[in-house]
Amino acid sequence: MSPKQRKKPSRQKNQASNSSVTSPIFTTNYREIHQTEVEALRSIYGDDFEEVENRRSAWQQSSDVTFKLHLRSSSNPDILLILLVELPATYPKTIPNLSPGNLDGFRDGARSRIQEILRNKPKSLLGSEMIYELAVSIQDVLEDVAQAQAQDKDLPSLEEERMEQEAAALQRADLEKQEELRKQKAAAVEEERALQEMLQDKMRQRNKARILRRKSRTGGADMSYVDELVENTPGAICFDPPLAVNDTDEQPLVFRAVHGKTLLQSKQCKKTFTVRPVVSENRCHVPLLVLKELCLSENNSEGLTFREQMRTSEDKLEGIKRLRHPNLVEFVGFKINRPFGNFDSPDNSWTVFTLLEYANKGSLSELLDIVGTVAVDMLRGWMIQLLEALEFYHRSGFVHGNIHCGRVFLFRTPSGETIVKLQSNVEEALPDAPCGKPSFAASKSPLWAPPELTQDSSSPSMKTDVWDLGIVLLQMGFGKDVLLRYTSANQLMVSMGLSPPLQDLLCEFFRPDPRKRPTAFQLQPSEFFRVDAPLKMRERASGSVSLQRRPRLDSFGPMPAFSRYHQDFDEAGQLGRGGFGQVVKARNKLDGRLYAIKKISQTSAAALKDTLSETMLLSRLNHSYVVRYYTAWLEEDFNQIEEEAMSSTEGDPFASQDHHGFSTGGLDFISSSGYPKIEFAASDSDDENEGTLSDPAHPETPERLNGTGDDSRSAEEELSRARSGSYARPILTTLYIQMEYCEKHTLRDLIKDDLCDDTERSWRLFRQILDGLSHIHSHGIIHRDLKPDNIFIDVANNPRIGDFGLATSGQFTTAVRSSAAADFGGDFTRSLGTTYYVAPEMKSVVLGHYNEKVDMFSLGVIFFEMCHPLPTGMERDQTLRQIREKNHTLPPTFQQSDKLLQGQIIESLLSHTPSERPTASDLLSSGKIPLQVEEETFRRAIVHLLSDPNSPDYKKILSAIFSQSPKKFEDIAWDIDSHAVPAANELLVQGLVKKKLTSIFRRHGAVESTRQMLFPRSQHYNGGAVRVLDASGNLLQLPYDLTLPNARAIPRQDRSLEKTFAFGTVYRDSPHGSEPRTHREVDFDIVSHNTLDLALKEAEVIKVLDEIIEEFPPLRSTPMCFLVNHSDLLQLIMEFCRITPTQIPKVKEVLSKLNVGKYTMQTIRSELRAPAIGVASTSLDDLARFDFRGDKTQAAEHHGRN
């Protein structure tokens, strides 16, 4: 009977009584309910009902009813689900336990529906019999499954679906495997690309090392190209080694020869020409130089003695050549040509060529011939320069001996300033000769000769130079003929009525006793150089006073009523302009040092107040990489005050001396002993002492002021009325700021000198600039005009940030930015290249606030120039404009591994969003900047640790070194430079040669031995030996030759072993980190235990060489000669040529290449003259005489000629 034909049992429900009487409490009989429902299900499902025996446990009073229902679809009985039912004791008030038996055989949809029925429907039927309801619901699902199968018979079966799923899983696994292989392949390609990039970088570094090494050997220039230029230039005069000067554009220029001689002056034994360096045609701004040709004769002295004198003179010339001072004419170089004839030859003259800097404004002597005298201010400035030059000359250990106006030359600098330079006395360094030096009478009168030179056997000294410089001072002030008009300095001072400061100075210059005569350094603080004293005292008529007379400014006189600036400083020229005003170079009269003085003139009290606030901020800067600010003071415009005072007092000459308003002391806003606090020295309410400096020892009285008391008081009252505002005129007030003066050597010059090629130096400079900028920003100061021209380089090669002409403090808003915008459009953009460094937010008023990040943008452009070459102005303009764009791309240079980090820093600094730019302190603490100072400390610590092998850290360092994993690109780079394996025929030839050599050696009784391949480092080799380090820290060496290994083995070998030979390989170090160069070598050695038969053994060695030549036909048919060396003879040649003991080993090593291949004597000479060895040219001339070949007769003839 099918389930459709089964009848559903009627459900009997208890009807509740409607009576108002309370029903009695009935007890539910669950067992009876269970039996009733089970019987009903058995009658409905028949055979599809299966009772399951449930064993009763020892603790259970009654067991749960358990049975199975085999539920089938009515249309397809094969679709079957077995439902296990377990009725708990409290069923139907408790949900029965239902477990489908074969649910996995259904598809996902049917399985989900069945699970949903079993999970949720029992909850809704709780309290009544529910098994049949659940079975019917499940049968409905089974019927849907049957209908679906009947409608689409092409659907795969469950087994087929499972197989499809497995196939899909396999396919997915295969795809994943292929994807993994693709990723591995891409990673391999990327690794190969990175490997190739690292390999290219490595090879690029090696090529760069080769080029630098070649340049270091040739003085920094391509000498092959230079030699070709010299050969193609007629009349060129060559110099060894190559010379270096700055061209007219202040760029370094290396050359080896000069040409284009144009005669300037011709005297006996001396000619002067103008020449130009021999350089390529495309090189511009080639400077003009002065070439002097001096002829010396050795006829009046013994040849050997004269040669010794010339050798000494060459040392002096080398010393003068090294002198570098702003007020010394640069001695570029020299060349000595010696005669090559016999000693008794009639033409036995030497020629000395000296190359000097060209004076574009002639000599002081020529100027005085035209103008007679120079102005006192110019005289004062020039004399200070000459004193500084002479002091440096003397401090370097040289005596000039011939100072006169013809030795002082005038130079016009690019800034328009005229300076003087003293020319070194090159002739004094040469041996005495009739034509070597001009006579004393030719330049000055004998009456003016220094007293010490009138004695016999006296020679010029440093005090003599001071005397001669005093004469130059007199000639500048009173004309060249002053030496003819007066017989002595005393007569001149008595006759001309000189000013007291000048009299004091001349008394010092012309002290008769040279021991009491001051040095050039002691003369520099003289009063005449520190005050505006005239040369002569003006005469005045009785009862009148000269307006031009200035009282003597000494310690006993009253404090003068003049500007503090004009009293303490001598202005030497203008340095530039900025937002504050102008900056001048001035020399302090008290300490003699140069300072940069910034002048800020204001007529508005508010504007002056703002300026003072910013000045006080700048005064706080005290950093090693920032130009220092020393002091500041205020002054009023005395020209306007004096003009009004003169008109109001009707010509009273002393009414202009207002002792209530003079700024001799001024308002000193910055203490010179640090800046603990800032105080104003004057009060507006203190009318009696306003700005007055009184001298308690010398109170100012009307008599001391050379005027009556009434006149003085009248003048004071007049000026007081003018100052208090009785005249409707604003008084121009000037703020003076005294700063450290830096020479015009800036970061721009280093950039032009290819700073980008020196990565370590550029990192060091960048870190130092960051350090200084961080200090500036920490004080709330914004530079606003940061560029390479404003970063000066001091003598220690450290940067100094300066020129705060546009600096401001804190944030700068658009509301107060109008004046700054005017600066930006005017002075701010006047300097070429400034606009390249301006941050984008500074060019747009609408951006509102800006802060110190504008300096970081400028620093990004500066760092770009420090790292990337920009050879031409057009390329620089295009590149800098491109990187300033918001969407820019850095050049490919910054994709290389050695510039990748620089590129990242530059990108962050050039961001157009200020908040994205790092601050200076952020960059310093980021760890991206190499720590140069810390690295040096670390380097010293490592050296200290490695010097103590017993230290525990010693082994740790070695372990860390030897535990490094090998780098693949290093391995490949090593093989690239490795030598190729010889071909088979070459190996056969090598074997044949070895066999024949072995036969020859054995005929002489020699036995073959082996040589050590690794041994402790030897001190016998200066360079070129391959040194290695083992894991224990021992410094070892590969064989440089086979001689040293044999010498080390001799003490350990048997005495009977006298003759040995060995074949081996010797090694030469590769300077760029590649495989050492190898050479095959064979040694034949004879060990002697006594000196009885040394000649016989040496003859046997020569016989072995002769047999080798005879054994090989190519050698037999080639002209051969034996080069027999003799150490004693070679040492005598070195001593004869006056080669110093420290130079001899290097000279011998270089001479070993002479006449081998392309190494001629000229090539050897250039290498020996290079700074690395520095052999004197006279010594090389003598050494060249021994470069000859011939028999004894020819040698004797050669010796006779030389």
Description:
With 1202 residues, the chain is α+β, with helices and mostly antiparallel strands. The protein has 38 helices and 27 strands. It has 7 domains: 30-155, Roll (Ubiquitin Conjugating Enzyme), CATH 3.10.110; 359-530, Transferase(Phosphotransferase) domain 1 (Transferase(Phosphotransferase), domain 1), CATH 1.10.510; 564-681 and 729-740, Phosphorylase Kinase, domain 1 (2-Layer Sandwich), CATH 3.30.200; 756-930, Transferase(Phosphotransferase) domain 1 (Transferase(Phosphotransferase), domain 1, Orthogonal Bundle); 937-976, no CATH class; 984-1116, Bira Bifunctional Protein, Domain 2 (BirA Bifunctional Protein, domain 2, 2-Layer Sandwich); 1127-1201, no CATH class. A 6-stranded antiparallel β-sheet has the order 5-6-7-8-10-9. The longest helix has 61 residues, at 158-218. The radius of gyration is 51 Å and the shape is flat. Residues 1-24, 436-443, 539-561, 641-729 and 809-833 have low confidence and may be disordered. This is non-specific serine/threonine protein kinase. Residues 12-24 have a biased composition (Polar residues). ATP binds at residue 599.
